[in-house]
Known about the structure:
two-stranded antiparallel sheet, Rossmann fold, alpha/beta
Amino acid sequence: MKILLVAATPFEINPTIQVLKQNLIEFQPNRFQKGPSGLDILITGVGLPATVFRLTDHLSVKSYDLIINAGIAGSFRRNIPLGTVVQVVEDRFGDLGIELANQDFQDLFDIELTERNAFPFQEGRLVNKEAKDFDFLPKVNAITVNRVHGAQPSIERIQKKYAVDLESMEGAGVFYVAQQKRSKCLQIRSVSNYVEPRNRDAWEIGLAIEKLNEVLVPIITSLL
Length: 224
């Protein structure tokens, strides 16, 4: 099994990195080996441009049996407790399009610049067909944005349009590249905050990272 672990920042997966360093052979920086199996770590940087570039560049020279995208995210749903670890099974680009004069948002599919079912999209969404292979976490839908939502009017508009559970700044980029490369993918995220009028004091990043890695380590060790 060859695994690529993708994260935007090293601190989101640092506890897992430390476990790997203790239990596997690190023959190169961010490259680990256990018998015939191996795991590489790719830190892309924050946001869609960095994620799409770094992942595409990496996959142009290497292939993997599984890509795991791990990170934290904001939740639109108050019934998802902070620190909950979920599997994103559908993602979409949440701000790629145009703003109308009344501040409504139309995406590329609304304005017919892209077909809703043009590969790899399904009705404008990026659907993880392999989600059933990892049926052990709550399943959610997400949007990926370049600008996280932090004002009530824009939060209400995006919820009305897409009715999704989470938002991140990288997830759909990983799904998009993985599907273009015909690579199997898993996206797991831990909820660090609610999507609300911006209140950084209410975020629980430490808790989210702790819970994320509590799930991530067993996943990796079971596969290697």
